[in-house]
Amino acid sequence: MSEPPTSHDNLVHLEHEYELENLKEVEREHSAHRHSHITIHSSYLVLLLSFVFFSILGTCIRLGLLAVFAYSDSPVASIVYPQIVGCAIIGFVNVYKSEITVGYYPLYIGLTTGLCGSITTFSSWSLATFKSFMSPSPGIGYQIASFLALIVSTIAMSLISADFGRHVGEAAGPLLYKKRRSPFIGVNMAPRTWLPKELAVLDAFFLVLALASIGTSISLGFWNSPHSDLMWALVLSPLGTLLRFHLSVLNSRMPAFPLGTFIANMIGTGVIAALYLYSASIAGSCTLVHGIANGFCGCLTTISTWIVELKTIPSITKAYIYGLASTVGGQILLVLIAGSPLLFRPHGSECL
């Protein structure tokens, strides 16, 4: 005959029921957050304005970093520095994705797709890696070492920078937001007309910034001809960002292999390879070549988004496949398109 439950047994039973109920509540909240979408009232035109401003700003930052760190005794190649800065920024911004998106969606898209995507560049990095292998050296071993060093250092520093930005963002959380919003997995953008009564203050602010940045960029070419290549780079940069933004809709079709980012990086690398071939074969002005390579290709391709995708793909095996396919694919395009001029002209392109 079993003994009647004691008060201690009843207490343990109640504690187990309480813990079980808490676990169920946490799971319900987690499931709701995981499957939640939010609706944002915004205009496609406002997104375009944010792309214009942040693309031009990002291109200026990238070209400035390349110019500052392009000296002979630099510890790493100058192309690494823009990737460090862009990945650190996107790591920081993604900590506050929910808050920025709900507060003003074009700002989040502008900071990530526009600014970080324009500071970092996959095409110029691929070209620099290709040139490090094809450049004259004492032996093939030096070429292979230089080639691998630039690949490993860029990817490693980009991954570390993204984590560093995230750490800074998490540490600064209590100072920036007293109450954090729950995460969500998607945004439904409700269209908003461009009527004055529906024009937000930030919309008007971005309109002014976009017009001012375009006007300043064009004025560089008219008033100071030595900077006409910079003018073309700045003017063409929003076109690259916009194309990348539209290609990003393909990413959801293959979550383990973001097709949109991959296609954008391959197109940009192919174009810059063709520019390298053109400039190495035909003597002439480098103005437009610089403009397309640094502006359109530089903003069409991105390392910051690529790094975030590598870190968020659930399967480590599939992440390696995606990373290797992108890296190797870019080099194959460069060899197929731009390999021939270096075989006949060891010094390569006069422009790139």
Q: Could you explain how this protein is built, in words?
A:
The chain is mostly helical and 352 residues long. It is 73% helix and 3% strand. The chain contains 14 helices and two strands. The protein has a two-stranded parallel sheet with strand order 1-2. The longest helix is centred in the middle third of the chain and has 32 residues, at 140-171. The protein starts with 6 loop residues before the first helix and ends in an 8-residue tail after the last helix. The relative contact order is 0.14.
Secondary structure layout:
Layout: H1 7-34, E1 37-42, H2 44-68, H3 80-95, H4 97-103, H5 105-119, H6 122-134, H7 140-171, H8 173-176, E2 186-191, H9 201-223, H10 228-247, H11 259-281, H12 287-300, H13 304-312, H14 316-344
Parallel strand pairs: 1-2
Helix pairs in contact: 2-5, 2-9, 2-10, 3-5, 3-7, 3-13, 4-5, 5-10, 6-7, 6-11, 6-14, 7-13, 9-10, 10-11, 10-12, 11-12, 11-14, 13-14
